From TrEMBL:
Classification via Gene3D superfamilies: 2,3-Dihydroxybiphenyl 1,2-Dioxygenase, domain 1 (3.10.180.10)
Name this polypeptide is given: Glyoxalase/fosfomycin resistance/dioxygenase domain-containing protein
Glyoxalase/fosfomycin resistance/dioxygenase domain boundaries: 7-116
Superkingdom to which the source organism belongs: Bacteria
Organism, scientific name: Paenibacillus abyssi
Signal peptide location: none
InterPro entries in UniProt: Glyas_Bleomycin-R_OHBP_Dase, Glyas_Fos-R_dOase_dom
Length: 134
């Protein structure tokens, strides 16, 4: 038996729970699964790990820098990156990168609270080669 089998949940810090729930549902298509208390919300997508929003005591956004470039901690797989790019632009999101990296089209952006996120639309050959490795 393997010690760790999958990522079950991720926790994302936010400043305002209600504003963040609205942003993640309207902008990224998440579904709110419940708000147990005023500092925590369960969110989800169709597949993948649960995505939980937390209002921490001392807020600090997710992300780090490499060669002074913001790096994402959470990476989403998307089907239509152009549509997501357009939606993020209309919402006024900070966008760091929108490019074709060969293996995937990449879109690096911030949520409402400055958490750095990355969306990838994988190319078919890359997707198929990854499935063969599994």
């Amino acid at each position: 038996m393997k010690l760790i089998t999958e990522i079950s949940e991720v926790a994302v810090p936010v400043r305002n729970l209600n504003a963040s729930i609205k942003w993640y549902t309207i902008t990224l298509g998440f579904v709110s699964e419940g708000i147990p208390h005023d500092k925590f919300a369960f969110m989800k997508l169709e597949t993948g790990a649960a995505f939980n929003l937390w209002v921490p005591d001392n807020f600090s956004p997710l992300g780090f820098r490499v060669n002074d470039e913001p790096m994402a901690v959470i990476i989403f797989k998307v089907g239509d990156i152009k549509q997501l790019h357009t939606k993020l632009q209309t919402k006024g999101a900070i966008i760091y990168q929108y490019s074709d990296e060969g293996f995937a089209k990449a879109l690096k952006f911030e949520d409402l609270d400055g958490n750095v996120l990355l969306a990838l639309e994988y190319s078919d050959p890359y997707e198929n080669s990854c499935k063969q490795l599994a």
